[in-house]
Design goal:
The complex is a heterodimer. Chain A is an all-alpha fold. Chain A contains 13 helices and no strands. In chain B, helix 2 links the parallel strand 1 and strand 2. Chain B is globular. The chains are: A mainly alpha, B alpha/beta.
Chain lengths: 296, 430
Amino acid sequence: MPVIKYLRRNGLAYLLLFPASSFVFILVFWPMVKTVVLSFQNASLFNLSEVRFVGLTNFRNLLGSDLFWLTFKNTLIWTFGSLGGEYLLGLSSALLLNQEIKGRTIFRGIIVIPWAVPVVVAALNWRWILNPDFGIVNILLVRWGLLKESFYWLGGINTALATCILVNVWRSFPFFTIALLAALQAIPKEEIDAAKIDGAGSLQIFKHITLPHLRTVSAITTILIIIWTFNYFDFIWLLTEGGPLHASEVLATLVYKNTFRYYQVSFASAIAVIMMGFLVMFGVLYLKMSLKEGGK
Amino acid sequence: MKRKLVCIVLAVFLSLIPVVSYASQDSAENVTINVWSPTTRGEPIYEGLVTVKKAFEQVFPNIKVEIETIPWGEIHDKVLVSAQAGNPPDISYILAEWYVEFAKMDFLQDLTSWVNEWAAKELIYPNCWQAAELEGKIKALPHRANIRTYVYREDLFKEAGIGSPPATWKELQQEVGPKVTKDTDGDGEIDVWGFGWSTTSARSPQEFIPYFWQSEADLVTEMPDGKFKNLWQEDEKMLSRATEPFQFYHDNVYKFKISPIGIRNWGYAECDTSYGIGTIASQLGSTWIKYLESEHPETIKVTKFADVPYNRKPATLLDISFLGIYKEGHPKEAFEFAKFLQSYVGQMLYVEKELATHKDISRSEDDKIAWSLVDHAYGFKPISWGKINDKLIEAEQSVLFNKMTPREAALWLSKEINEALEEQGELSSY
């Protein structure tokens, strides 16, 4: 019998995979399925005994709410603003650290510090640094004449989100630095030497040799950062809690508020499902790229 | 073959780990109760908790007490998640704002009959028991309480030639505030502001809501059906009074300029630090403000307490935190331990003296001032406050950012409160 033959050959492998795959199922897939189911119900933590199917009501309410669209816009600004800043800073620092300079190893170590600092510590420090009354940023800007008076960067409707993005860029750019630096070091020296012999300048070398070599790493890290930042909760929560007046509200903080403050779990699940749909697109893209890269 | 066998045994063992660990609970005779406390090792009250625990374990050798430190900011979410999963602690701290929510979610043990049989019940302030009563049942023990007062820096007041604290909003805005607010170094920027408050964080509603009581325009009114409603939209007079707290905050910043503009987004940390370093001369607080002592000992030495300035009638907050005992687990044993914590010695050791709900605790002069306000100190109405508090903060900020007038904010808030009450099943049909 082919089935028995197959099981005899692969049965042990399945048995050994069973504990790990059960954990993955319980901890990853089951909550995901449960979230999707909840998004079509009317569950709140106050009425768990009267939960019923409500179809697309939660999605209709969500898509009809101004707050959702403001939050969605903020999430895109937050994600792509952070990505742009992190990539530029990461690439610049990687290029610098790829140069033959004294103390290069020490600088490479130092640059990872923002990434290594726990988010809570970093966020609380930045809150103090940016404080209008005793924060060093305001004191210096006023002293240097760049500001007339102190400004509450995290407390302004027009500045809160931008400030959160800046702080996030500071914290996350080392990820790009490390990834891009590794790719830069893998560029064959002969290619650069040959280009130099052919009379190529620094800009031409960067455009025609360096950038093409960074393409794959850049694409993969970019998608990873989009996925991480899109549903990143900690930094914004610790810096502004989404305020003032939702100026820095993102989808992740909206999910948290609806779950833990308002107890509207079905409504929160509907937001999470929309987030999930958006992230799955990037997840699939990442998978495709990884497979393509793996096949090389 | 041998290798295969080892692999099979290993796989079965790994699959059984969760089952084995679940089964290794204490037997019925020996019980372990888990206490989630926000106190951290090294704090005197943490050591007090350990002392109470040791004494308790001597009296009840079959009950072991495990203490886990969970910061204030995390207790709510952790309890919510663990209780939903059917695995809450046996005892935890609960803020007044969460009490009704946890009770409605049916996490909490009904303690009514146990409390009624408890001889020491009479030793706790009656209005604390009143605050613990939900639909005739007691579902948590009133463990710590404070009465909000006006807290001010006596030295800064004296420097400004002020002998006594303001009794009314008018005195604060037109006499005391402007005199205390000063540019001390002559650089054109104000260095000391007359009055500060928290616009964000849990403390914001605690400070803002009493102003609505003072204005005789409560956020929610209990209706004859036992449910609640905001009546501002239905009663023009009430709506007009509801605008007064918004106007008060707005005028402090823009008209009388006794509060900094940055206050629009201050949390309690910014407020307390500003008070500690003397950039604001007064705020609302209570004798627990002494927690700033280690960072600003001089400030605490010159801090004085008085009744909260009012507009129409005096009112302030009776802020109670509870000991919640959860249904799942060992509620009976947990209640025995809670009784130890609620005893005179327990309160002396585990609760800061200023916060004790025990009537017999000897209190400092400052604390006596706070407790002398008990007649017009009120607790939160028994509804779920999470969403309403967020909306209150939003309305407050809208006025401070000049996005809404006080009247628009009151109307908007009224609608939002009733919507929240409806979502929570608390809206009256009257």
